[in-house]
């Protein structure tokens, strides 16, 4: 029996208790899409539209990444990041807050930037990009709010696609976006099943084979990841969003972190075997 790439993905996810949404674009006219228009909780993936909004304001000259911002007590929140271990009153550049928001998914840095930009402005930028189901609902507050954001696999890919093509406001802002996301510390789904050699040029001594600019996000309702893969045969965008799984606990062996990485590995192997296409 011949199996196309979608059938192979469905075979991987046959035993997954939840629902996985997948969207992949090889920029050569080939799209892989499964549940691509289904709405999912974003968790920290909403930080990508926040960063895109910030860079839009920078591009328009309304803000500078050198501008200082202050972490004030009202923006304290537990969860991911490092600022919760530091003293309120700390002043950093806007770029530093944006970098912390992305690479260690810092929740306090995120709230500082939401205060700076405003929820309505973030959602207006999503609308301008055609991301009409993508919404930032509120600041991060696990007591007051059940949701943080919503998106679809196809819409979550839009900003990555624009950045890869140098069209996220400008080539300069696209490159800045990618530079920040390549420093990501949490590639929980995209890289877990990949051959480590591909990602470690410093220790192998060889040229780096693979780099990824990405942002993941996890809450009780979801485990998500998405980003841009850069390979010797060109690049592609992949987003993986999950929900409705039976296990709500947070740990590295969660089933989303089993099946999602298998899908990511399959797509990378497929892309490389076809020398740069799906």
TrEMBL record:
One Pfam family, short name: Beta-lactamase2
Domain Beta-lactamase class A catalytic: 21-240
InterPro entries: Beta-lactam/transpept-like, Beta-lactam_cat, Beta-lactam_class-A
Sorted UniProt keywords: Hydrolase
GO molecular function: hydrolase activity
Gene3D superfamilies: DD-peptidase/beta-lactamase superfamily
Protein name: Serine hydrolase
Organism from which the protein derives: Fusibacter paucivorans
């Amino acid at each position: 029996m011949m199996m196309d790439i979608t059938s192979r993905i469905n075979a991987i996810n046959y035993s997954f208790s939840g629902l996985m949404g997948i969207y992949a674009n090889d920029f050569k006219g080939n799209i892989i899409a499964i549940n691509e228009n289904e709405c999912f909780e974003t968790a920290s993936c909403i930080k990508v539209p926040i960063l895109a909004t910030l860079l839009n304001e920078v591009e328009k000259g309304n803000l500078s990444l050198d501008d200082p911002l202050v972490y004030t007590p009202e923006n304290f929140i537990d969860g991911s990041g490092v600022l919760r271990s530091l003293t309120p009153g700390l002043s950093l550049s806007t770029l530093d807050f944006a970098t912390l928001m992305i690479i260690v998914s810092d929740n306090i840095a995120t709230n500082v930037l939401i205060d700076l930009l405003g929820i309505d402005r973030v959602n207006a930028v999503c609308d301008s990009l055609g991301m009409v189901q993508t919404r930032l609902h509120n600041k991060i507050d696990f007591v007051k709010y059940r949701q943080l954001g919503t998106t679809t696999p196809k819409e979550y890919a839009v900003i990555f696609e624009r950045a890869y093509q140098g069209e996220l406001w400008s080539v300069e802002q696209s490159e800045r976006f990618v530079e920040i996301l390549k420093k990501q510390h949490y590639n929980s789904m995209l890289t877990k099943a990949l051959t480590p050699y591909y990602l470690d040029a410093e220790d192998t001594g060889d040229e780096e084979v693979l780099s990824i600019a990405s942002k993941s996000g996890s809450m009780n309702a979801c485990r998500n990841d998405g980003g841009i893969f850069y390979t010797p045969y060109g690049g592609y965008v992949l987003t993986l969003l999950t929900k409705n799984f039976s296990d709500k606990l947070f740990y590295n062996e969660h089933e989303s972190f089993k099946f999602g990485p298998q899908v990511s590995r399959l797509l990378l192997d497929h892309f490389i075997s076809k020398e740069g296409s799906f």
